[in-house]
Automatic annotation (TrEMBL):
Signal peptide: none annotated. GO terms for molecular function: iron ion binding; oxidoreductase activity. Its main location: membrane. This is ERG25 methylsterol desaturase, SUR2-type hydroxylase/desaturase, catalytic region. It comes from the Eukaryota. It comes from Trichoderma parareesei (Filamentous fungus).
Length: 304
């Protein structure tokens, strides 16, 4: 890291993190406080792969379970039930506890290896994790591209997982809950977790390989937003302030909730365009459009 040459000589392996942070601030006054925290962490750990691995896993767990807690609370408050899509199927605390237990096991067995190996693979392709951080504009356009890339991967692999043998052997576990809730976002078999996780972790690496530009902070911002999207999509709640009401192409909870209820269609993760273009939308409105289209085709043939 760029700050290493300025500070490493003043440090030794016995110093605590706060001491390292103080030294970083002393020799790098041009950095903001968050950048100093970041630089001090890597200098303190003195093992970049370990530093990234620990930070990534802790961040993932805090965001995942932290985002689920509000939905668990809302399930117990009658006021919010009017926003519940399948209000007749409220998850019990036991169901949520059982789900959380399996998800936690999956995090340690299926996701931790991906998180751990991300740093050496990404740095091989040139990922930057130094300070100062990239501009917000750079982060924004890269994250927008990552959403499109991951959504494409998710659509095709998710759709493939609904093929008979693959569904029975891999994807069926995720459909245990026909009325999903936030914790169920990552309730899946290890194989599915790995396959769909490639889209989340692999898309940044592919973008990096193509453009030669990606910062670890951008990766963290992307993972955070993707986690929030996945949990919200599985939450079972469709609020008036949900993003889909302001961004029509956004999938949202209603889109994915229908997938769990009908067990087919609505395969995309973040956007609606793949399902729309390939006629794999689920629900009454989509069925009505297909029926009207078919009737129009029949009438056109008769008119010939």
């Amino acid at each position: 890291m760029d700050v290493a040459n300025a500070t490493f000589g003043a440090l030794n392996q016995t110093q605590g993190y706060l001491t390292v942070l103080e030294e970083v601030g002393k020799y790098n006054v041009h950095l903001n406080y968050f950048e100093r925290l970041w630089a001090a962490w890597y200098l303190y750990m003195q093992n970049d792969t370990l530093a990234t691995g620990i930070m990534s896993f802790v961040m993932h767990e805090v965001i995942y379970f932290g985002r689920c807690i509000p939905f668990i609370i809302m399930d117990k408050i009658p006021y919010f039930h009017k926003y519940k899509i399948q209000s007749q199927k409220m998850p019990t605390l036991k169901e949520q506890w059982d789900c959380a237990s399996i998800v936690l096991i999956s995090h340690f067995t299926a996701e931790l290896p991906q998180i751990w190996f991300f740093h050496p693979i990404a740095t091989y392709f040139g990922m930057d994790y130094s300070v100062p951080f990239p501009s917000l504009f750079t982060m924004a356009w890269q994250i927008a591209i990552l959403f499109v890339m991951e959504d494409t991967w998710h659509y095709w692999f998710h759709r493939a997982l609904h093929y008979g043998p693959l569904y029975r052997s891999i994807h069926k576990m995720h459909h245990l809950y026909s009325a999903p809730f936030g914790l169920a976002a990552e309730y899946a078999s290890p194989i599915e977790t790995a396959l769909l996780g490639i889209g989340v972790v692999g898309s940044p690496i592919l973008l990096l390989a193509i453009t030669g530009e990606l910062h670890l902070l951008t990766m963290y911002a992307w993972i955070t937003l993707r986690l929030l999207q996945a949990i919200d999509a599985h939450s079972g709640y469709d609020f008036p302030w949900s993003l889909r009401h302001f961004l029509p192409v956004w999938a949202g909870a209603d889109h994915h909730d229908m997938h769990h209820e009908k067990f087919i269609g609505n395969y995309a993760s973040s956007f609606r365009w793949w399902d729309y273009m390939l006629d794999t939308e689920a629900g009454a409105e989509a069925h009505k459009r297909r029926r009207e289209k078919k009737l129009a085709q029949i009438k056109a043939k008769k008119a010939q």
